[in-house]
Design goal:
single chain, about 90 residues, mainly beta, six-stranded antiparallel β-sheet, four-stranded antiparallel β-sheet, 10 strands, globular
Amino acid sequence: MLKHNSYFDGKVQSLGYERHGRKQTVGVIVPGEFQFTTDGAERMTVVNGELQARIAPGAWVVYPAGTSFEVPGKTTFGVKATAPSAYWCEFI
């Protein structure tokens, strides 16, 4: 079953699903800067466009399409997009 998620007045939207017992989401981010908090560890893969991520307390790092970054559980992290971008998130 699919679950639609909408954050920041619709500026970040995703569809959640489960595959092989693992939760995942695919989504889109419009230009802007957004803060998220994780319960569990996540791997974010940029599918299209480019995202910048800052995993507290680190620096901003650029991730072009085809690259990924991991976020530890119980962490706050920032994401910036300068153009619409798509991502795939695996809960690991």
